[in-house]
Each structure stands twice: as structure tokens, then as C-alpha cells.
Xylanolytic transcriptional activator regulatory domain-containing protein
Amino acid sequence: MTAVADEGTNTFEYFGSSSAGSFTRQIKAAIDARLGVSAATPAQPTPTLSGNGPQDAILDGASYTLPARRVADRLMSTYWLYVDPLYPFLNRKVWERSYRALFEGTPLHTDERIFVTMLNVIFALSTQLLEATHSEYRENSSNAYFINARDLLRLDPWEPGSLELVQCLLLMGQYSQSTNNPHKTWMVVGNAIRIAQGLGLHLPETSANVADADERETLRRVWYGCVLMDRTVCMTHGRPAMVSENIPSAVPMPVWSQPGSGSTSATASNKSSQTYFAFFVKSVELYEIIHQANLKLYSGSDSRSARKEGPQASHREADDEDLGIVMQIDSSLSRWKCSLPDHLKPDTTELPDSATVQRQAVILRIRFLHARILLLRPIMARFCLDHAPYHHVYDSLKTRVTQQCALFCVETAKRMISTLVQYQQNDGTVGLLPAWWYRVYYVYSAATILIAAKLRPDVFPAPDIARSWEQAMSILETHERFGQSAKRCAAALHILSTKILQDTQTCENPRNGAGLAGSGERPATLVDSGTAFSGQVDENTFFGRSDLAGISFDINDFTWLNDMHAWELLNQA
């Protein structure tokens, strides 16, 4: 989802800082070599939004072909079960009325071409969520549905947009996250935002002037869907956000209840419907906090780069400033957590009766943990770097706070992994967890923290984190049936772990090769604990020194930890 072009590829695409891109390309090349992917082999063609079909307004018969009603109903049920509770971009009552009319052959009171396009995108997305299906069949089927949608859409940048078109593009953005083409996600979400702004959805009066409650709330959910997807793509691509900081809050948040749910019934089903959209609203709030962390801690602005490359005193001032930023944003996270309704609190001991609400609570817990990892990760990197042999660290309040942040970061990563293990299903269903491509991404994010902890065995003894590492590797092994992404994730993690072990051994024995910058020594415990950290896996048997000869990154350059291009490593683009 966050592609960085291979070396030699003629592209002008921007994916964050150049140093991060260089690191990602090196790791990607090593993964390809280990997994037998030829760099000279052209990537499989992936559908674009331009399409190749006729440009007239008449529906193409081939693209209009729909699956049998039984298959369509099953895929729609999957969508309502797994996607809509998290991303409620559609007005279900209006949608189901049009859905029935389409299969009954009666007139639709909407743009039929856009509706059928959305239907095919939903089929494509739902097919990706059928985890019991063989990966090749699932990929081929979902891609076929998406090609149908692409050929029907025929997006014309010169024509005015519509609410239905924005909904369609948001769904396409959701589907694109499951593919190996991150550029498609970036462009689709960008188009959705621009069309939404063209319709005035970012203005409070646009929805406020709508009398019908269903329609008014749909407008607001669609706008905040654009904001949520913008923040997500910004986080994963390392690119600037399209929606500025001050614009989102101008539009009132959607209400928590489903229209018509009422407030008098005490049944469990009605209680869940009264808070159906609470998850979505709290997710938007959480991703705004994440966006603040991205802006203030991961920004690629010239001013931030300059201060980090400036004099030592300036660097220390930047470090102090970042600690203050982390404290402020962590306070925002804590306030956000306290504001959650009881049924969504991450540490609640009693799960709700509704499976949908249970899943919302679990996923919100995972998103919260990931947000905290992103927040603490730069401090974790600094903590490990300060232990380098050429760094002289004195005991102070700052060093102790930094160490506590690092401890908290590792503990959060372990909780992330244990949560994924706790709710992992082996029955071919999604269960209470997010979609499989998100699970792989979350595991990778948490596991890189464990690798960083390997650099400080004086604080993080290897046996303490070995169990979490083994759990992470076990999760990836079970996800290999979904395609290449889990294999590539495991390969990337083994490369990082092996490279760190090899470089620290070189540093420990400088006569065997060029040492790290500063040519000092690290504690012997770092090397001694290397094998224990990996459980039953000997890193050097997975990737030998010859496999890593082309990787030149310095373990003291924590681009590999703070890199915002993880999904490029997980996908073969």
C-alpha cells in the first residue's frame, strides 16, 4: 500500500523521505532475492481507474454481468458483517432498496452505472474477506469484480461529481488496501476527497441544510470517511494529508445511533444499534491524534530536517522538544481512551453480547495500541541510539523518561501481538479481528519494536521478548495462506534481525570487518542473546552474510524503525 519504486524504475512518485525510500528498496531487493522474485520480471498488470471500455453512457453488457443472486447475497452479507460496522459509508436502507430493484428488474432511483460499479467493488472487497477460500481463487475472483467496476466507472475529471461517486471511490480505496498497488489507493482516495470538497461536504451548512435525518447523517459519514481514509493513507504512505488540520472539525460528527433505532427499547440489539456508529466516530478522533503525531514526529519538512542535521546543541533541543510533544499527544490518547463508551473501552472485562460490537471493541483496542507504538517509536529509536559506543549518556531526568518511554513502547508492542493471538480464528473466518492485510501490517509494526529492543539487552533481556517474537512469527506463518504479504513480512523481519546481529558481531570483533561508526564496543550480552531472541530460528541460516551483502544501512540509522513504508515490504509491487 505504500510503494517505493524499485531501483532503476523510471518514476517520480514521492513516498516520504529519500533515506526511508533507499532503505525500503534495499530490504525489498533482499526479500525478492530470497523468495525467488526476479527483478527483471515485470509486475503483473493491475487495473487502473481509466478503464479501456466504451466511453458512452450505455452500460456494457459484459461489465454488467452479475453473479447469481445466492452468491451476491452471500457477498453482501459479508460486507454488512465485516466492512460496514467499521466504514459506514453507505445508507443501508437506501442501498438495499436499490439492490432489490436491480435483481428484480425494476427501476432504480439512483445512478445505475455508479450503483453497479459500487456493487462490484463490494463483491471484490467481500471476496478478499473470505479467508477460507484458496488465495489464488480469491485473488482472481476479487480482481475480476474490480475490473468490472473499473470498466463501468470511467471516471471523467471534467464532469461534476456526486455523493454516490464519492462513496464508490471510498469503497475502491478500501479494496485497494488489500492489493499490491498502493498508488491506486493514493489516487482513489485523493479523487474522493476532491469530489467531496467540490460538493461542499467539508462545509457544515451542506449537511445542516438537509432536512431528512438519514440523508444528513450519510453526508457527514461520507465526509468523515474521506478524512479517515486521508489520515490512513497519510500514515502509510508518508505523504502530506490532503485535508488540512482545521477543516474536519467544521462539520458536526455523525450521531452514534442508526436512524430509527429509537431509545426506549432495552433489548441488546437495539442497544447496539443506538451506538452503531460510535466506533466510526471514535476512530476518526483517534486518527486525528495519529495525524498530529505524524505531523510533529515524522514530518519531512525542511525545518525539521535542518534542525536534526544541525549542531549538537540544536539536536539536543529537538530531542527535548520531541519528548514534550510525545507527552502532549500521549495525554490526548489517554483522554480519548477515557472518553470511549463502555462497550468500546479497550480494557473492559465484559465483552458486549453483539459480535459486531465485540469486534468493534477489539479493533479499536488494536488501533489504539498501534497509535501508541507510532507515538513512542521515535523515542525508542533514540533510546537505542544513545546506547551506541560513541554516545556518552549521563543519568538525568531526561534519560530516565526516555527509558520509560522505550519500556512502554516495547510493552505496547507485546500487547499488540498478544491481542492478535488472543482473538485469532482458525476456522476460516475473520472473527473479531481486522482484515488479514491489516493484521500482517500490525504484526510487522510490533515486531520491529522487538528487534529494536534487541539492541538494549541491558534493559530488555532476550528471554522476556522471545515469547512475543515467536508469537509474531507464528501469526505470520498462519497468514501465509493469504498470499505473499505475510512471507515478505517474515522475510523483512528476519533480514533486520540478522543484519543487526551480524553488525553487532562485527562491532564486537572489529578485526573481522569494518566496525560501526565510532568503532566502539557494544556489550557482549547483545551478541550472546541474539539466538535466544529468535526462539528456534537461527537467523544466519535464514539469511546468510552473502544474502545481505547489498544492504548497506547502518543499524544506528533508525530509518528502518521509523520507516513509514511498511506496506511496500509486505507487497510485491
About this structure: The radius of gyration is 24 Å.
